C-alpha cells in the first residue's frame, strides 16, 4: 500500500528568506503579480467564450437600465416569497396589487443606479442584490419567530439580540447560519476577482447626477403613491402594512420615518388651549400623604387569557388566580400597540401615557428618543408626590437600553437580572418570574413611605417549541390537530399557568405587608402563535387582558383600556392628578379632538418647544437612578492550597465580577455567598472590588473597595487608617506591630 508522505514545512528557510528580503524584491514581486493578473484578464477577454459573449455584453450595456428593472422585479418577487413564506402568496400579492409591486420594484431599481459610479459593475450589482436578499431573508426568519416583521429599529437592538441568540436559534440553525454567511462572503470575494471590469470610460459626474435623479424620483413617487392611497405612511398594524405595501417600502420607511412630524396647527396658542394654559403640568392629589396607596404595575410577558381562543380546550383552568381576580376586581381588555413583539413599546405607552401610533413605523422610542433624552413618566409624576419609584425586570439591564431609559424617566432604582439570584429558567432559557417577588419586596423596603413599582416579567417569552419539552405538563391542551402547534400551545399555556402562580404568590406577599396597595396586572402583547382575529372572542389581535387588584375597597369597574390610557385611569380612581399627559387623558379622553390633540401634545413635549412646560417648568430635567438596591458585601477571603482564592460575602449573582486594581479577573460564581478567584495572585496593597456587570461589560454597580494585606481583605478606609498608624509608629521610632496583629480582617469587622 502506497504511503502518504507529508512534506515538512521549511520554517527555518522561510524566516531566512524574510530576513534577506530587499525592497527591490518586493517591487519586483508586485510588478510580476500585476503582469500575471493582466495576462489572465487578457486571456479571458480573448477566450472563445468571451468573444461569443461580447455582442451580448455590448447589448446588455446599451440596455442596462432595462436589465436593472428586470433584475429589480426578480429580487422584489423573491423577497416577497421569502417574507410571506409562500410562492402563491407572493404571486397573489403581485397580481392583486400591481401598483404596489411596481412601486417597490422602482425602489430596488433606483438603488442600482449606483452601479454606474464603478468599473466593477458586475460585482456592484451582485453586492446590491445580496444586500436586498439578506434583508428579505432576515424578514422571513423574523416572521417565523414573531408576528412583527423586520424593521430598522431591530438594527438598533442588535447588540442586545446577540446576548439572546440562543433563545432564537437552535444549534442546527446557528450552524446553517454560519455556513451560509461564510459561503456568501467567499462567493462575493470570488466575484470581486472574477467579475471583470467595465472597459469604457466612466463619466462619474453624470453618473452621480443620475443617482440623485433616480433617488429623488423615488421620493417624489412616494408622495404621489401616498396621495393616491397606493401606500400609506401610517402603519396602524405594522405586520399588515408589510403585507399590504411590500417589504422594500416598509423597511425603508422604518429607516427614514422616525419620531413625530410637526402637526400643521402646532402653535403656542393651540398648546395653551390643549393643556389648559399649562395647568396640566402639575402633580396634585386630594388625598393626604398617609392615605396614598402603593401603586404597582406588573407587565406579564406575552400574557393573555388562553380561554379567549375559541377552539382551544384545557384539562383545567390555566389561570385560577387571575380568574378569581377577574370575578372580583376591575378588569377588561387591554389594547397593546403591537402583536407578538414590542414589549418595550407597551412599557413606553403605559409609563408615559403616549400613543405609539404617532411615531414612525416599527419605531422603539426606548432606542431613539428616551435613550438620550429625559421624558416625563409615571415615575417622575409620582416622585413629585413623595413616592419611591422602582423598576424591575428579570432580563438584562441593557436590553432595549432600559438602564438609560428608566434613569431618563425619573426612577430611583432599577433592578435587572444582574442583581437577581436566578436559580430557575424555562426550557427556552428565560428566567422564571418567581425570582421577581423577593426583589420587589426589597425594592419596596428602600423607602419608608409609599412606592411606585413597575415590573416587567419575561417567563412567557417565545418562541414556543413545536416538540414536546415538558415531561409532566400540569395543563393538557386540546382542540389543535397539528401536533407541532399543539406542543407549542401546551408549552405556552403551562408557562401562563406558572405566571398565574406568580400572580397569586405576589398578592400574598403584598397582603402580608399590610400596606394600602393597588396592583395592576396586564399582558404586553399576544404570543407568537399564529393567531388570527377570527380565532379570538374579542375578534381583535391587539387585545390582551388586565385586572386591577386592591386592598383599599375600590369599586369594581370593568372597561376596555388602551395601554396609554391605563395609568391615567388608575390615577383618576385614586384621586391623583399628576403628569401632563395623564392629566390630559383624565380631562380630554371623551373630547372631540382627543387623538389629534394628543399628537400635538406628544410632539410638543418630545420634539417641539415644550409650550406645555413654560408655566410650571419641566417635570424632569435629569435622572438620578441607581442600579439595584443592595451593595455586594465581602465578609472573608480564604487562600486555597491550589493557589486560588475563595471570596465569601453577600448578594453575589452570576453577573458579579471581581476587579483587582481596576482589572477584571477570571472568577467563578458558586452561589450568592461565594465566588472563586482563579488565575490571580494577590499582593499586599492590591485593591479589590466586585461589580455587577451587564452586556458589553457595562458596570452597573460596584462594591466598596477592599485592600489585600497578608492574606486578608480590609475595607479601604480601615486599611488606610491602619497604614497611617504604622507609618506614625515608624516615624516615632517605635517598634510597629506585625501586620498580622495590626490589621483587622473583613470577617473580624463584621458584627
From TrEMBL:
Transmembrane segments: 59-79, 99-118, 125-144, 174-193, 205-226
Stretch list, region Disordered: 719-751
UniProt xrefs under InterPro entries: Alkaline_phosphatase_core_sf, OpgB/LTA_synthase_biosynth, Sulfatase_N
Keywords: Cell membrane, Membrane, Transmembrane, Transmembrane helix
Gene3D superfamilies cross-referenced by the UniProt entry: Alkaline Phosphatase, subunit A (3.40.720.10)
Subcellular localization, as worded in the UniProt entry: Cell membrane
Entry GO terms, CC: plasma membrane
Recorded topology in the membrane: Multi-pass membrane protein
Domain (Sulfatase N-terminal): residue spans on this chain: 293-558
Pfam entry (one): Sulfatase
Sequence ranges of Polar residues compositional bias: 737-751
Metabolic or biological pathway, per its Swiss-Prot or TrEMBL entry: Cell wall biogenesis; lipoteichoic acid biosynthesis
Keyword Iron attached: no
This protein's name: Sulfatase N-terminal domain-containing protein
Organism of this sequence: Mediterraneibacter butyricigenes
